[in-house]
Amino acid sequence: MAGTGGPLSRDGLRGREAELGELEALIASVARTGSGGMALVRGEPGIGKTTLLAEAVSHARAAGYSVGVGKADELHHIVPLSSLAACVLHGEQPLLSGAAFADLARNHDQRIWLVERLAEVIEARAGSVPVLIGLDDVQWADSLSRFALQQLPTRLRTSPVLWVLAGRREPTGPAEEIAAAAEGNLPTVTVSLGPLSGTAIAQLAGDALGAAVDERVRDLLDGAGGNPFLAVEMLAGLRTSRASDDPVPPGLVVGVRGRLRSLEPDTLRFLQMGAVLGRRFGFHEAAALHGRPATTLIAALEEAVRAGLLDDDGDHLVFRHDLLRQAVYADILPSARKALHREAARSLVAAGHQPIDAVPHILRGALPGDEEAVALLQRAADDVLPVTPDLAADLMTRALALVPSGRPLRFTVGEQTVLCLARAGRNREALSTGDGLLAGRPPLEAFSRLQATLGGTLWNMDLPGELRRRAEAALAMGCAAPEIAARLAALRSLALSRDHDLAAAREAGETALRAATASGDREAHVMALSGLGEIAQNAGENTVALKRFAALSAIDPAFLPEEIVAHLHTDDFEAAERLLLHATEAGATRQAMMLWAQGQHDLGRGRLDDADADFVTMERLEDEVRIPVQQVNGRVIRSRIALLRGDREAAREHLDAARERLAARPNPGNTAATRFLEAVHAEADGNIALSVSKLRQVQQEGSFMRWRLLRDWVDSAIRIALSGADHELAEDLAEQAGAHAGRNPAVPTATGIAAQALGLVNNDSAMLEHSAELLSTCPRPLVRAAASADLGRALLTAGRQQQAVAALTYARDTFAESGACAAAARVQRALRGTGVDSRRAATVQRPVQGWGALTVSEKKIARLIAQGHTNRSAADLLVVSPHTVNTHLTSAFRKLSINSRVQLANLVMALPDS
User: Fold this and answer.
1) How far is CA 684 from the centre of its chain?
2) What's the confidence (pLDDT) of residue 243?
3) Can you give the pTM of this predicted structure?
4) Residue 568 CB coordination number (10 Å)
């Protein structure tokens, strides 16, 4: 065998000893190390990919692997998760039962959630035995399976899971995308299959004919070009042919098409019906498409199986190789193909199949004006929108193309198309499609509906001015139905939330809410409350914002993150924690936004390590679904965290990343946050003039306190202004903080920071003492520490050393407990200046590598995983998201320089306290 250098006897494996040896080595490595791996098997059709994959699977099974193998289908690559389903549903011990898989796909409408559940199932199996998941013909994998395969190998890299993907060579195909996503995270072997050598082809001939192969046969086999499938087909013909002196014996099939011509006409027609249905099809489906009772086609089926063209597994018929199906399909005239595909779609729907199952045939067979096909595409798009919005958008784009320009249906279909495109994050395409429909002079009511539908797209594109213009124009026409008028009014108020006149925006929002209530339209109600919540937050009216967002999340739980953040703005961390716990237990739909809320909570509580991990995870999830919402703000906060820790290099990297993401979403809030971060960095670099200039730029975007991300950081801004001798700017900032406190008198953070701002501007130690008193009930330790540090320095200046030492010591210890090493060190230097003997170090920075480099959360999770917990069970114990566990675990593995859970368990067991 390959391992000993001996010959392989199975057809198609001659000459593949080296390639099989590579796969066997990877199989052994994954089982031995307990960490993941990936193999890509690439080559032209018929070159032996499937046979090599089957041999590798057989070897893995013999080595104790749990195996799941599937095959993607060219015709059915539309159906979400169909490719990966075969991998987890089949085998001696399927990873999932059919019922469990159906429940997974039916009841959970989030791609990220679905992938995490699949990961948990695979991870649980890999806890007891190594797992091999193989997918053949990966070039035809459906989009949701491709999405999952881009996430799962990296997510499961610490478990003994081997991914083997076989497919055709495509420079930018699915296999390459999947491998690129896993690059650097797990070992990957690429096995490229070229033509077999002449010696290997001769060995195949000997295996088939059982006798010496003469020159005449070798000459004939040269026509196979080293392709083992074609060679085997030729040899099958030779083996069944009569002896003849003719150059080409009568029974020899040189090409697949020639072989098909030897079949009975009924058999060939039956095979053609099957080829239209796909590589894998049902006998009754093919008979129905043929228009014949199944019993009259049994002879045709038997001949096709005898000829080695079809396999029959009892449930389905399968073409033995896709080259065979393609050859049969190619012999159907193009017009006949279209008609057959259209009829196949009709038959599948009539037989009770889901609309998405019929879509591949619609795409090949529907003609313009086919309203039945349009309706089917609309139903399919609705079904797949929650998990594959890109696919839904593509289906609706095709549906729209099938509706002629003059038909009223075009505007209804166009509205759904715009919605799907926006949901997929394809906003420019959505706007272009909508504007194209508007250019067709729709009826006034359709005009209003389209403008309302485009509202979300314009908001996502940060075009509030254009959103307002269009909403007002549609409302001015007065022809919109009540519910559409209510939506337009709500969109107008949302656009006004970005204007300077927030009083006018609030009035417009209240009017929109009344219209939404009167119309009874849920979507209008959601839009109106969302707009009013935005307006209240921009105005700094935290209690009002909380009221709006609480009402909004009661109507639509997807807005729970906004309610949580609103609770944090009122300093009600306990309520926020209850909602976070509920979201973790129940499962949140907008998981990236929920992590944004979790990160804001952990930052507020002074848990810098956890907050950083939250924002890392949030950005990863946003990247996975390609809908960046909070990435600028996330990077701004992570840069601030890095500066507090004293990691200037990481802080600079996050600043650069924030600038890069700002270019994609240059709205005023993102711009203000980035300019402020630039001011902080300029101050750290000693360039006070540039720092003050950047603060002035923040003010140009709107008052500093309008940007809710910055409200807790106004003290830093005032210090910068004072360092630059810009007393006017410092006073303006303090005045804004005072006004904000006036709007939020029951929020300790707001009132305490306002007093701190006044104390800094006026160098008033009494006001700073008052600030510290107000902040004593503030739940934000970093805010309390900063105010206490300011108080300590002022007291030193006033000669009140004893009180100063107490304030500075509190500030130092609080910063240190939060992991703000650099901030603690600065306070420690002030303490040394007092002459007081302070033996306690401000903090000890963690090492970069080893167990000591792990954060508290990383250590907790590492110990749980070492005890045998999965990511899900560890998450349940710690009441956090499995995604957060994965982020902490990834960081821990990197710091410990290990690759598997087995290595982690051994390391933890060797610790002194274990």
Assistant:
1) 35
2) 44
3) 0.85
4) 23
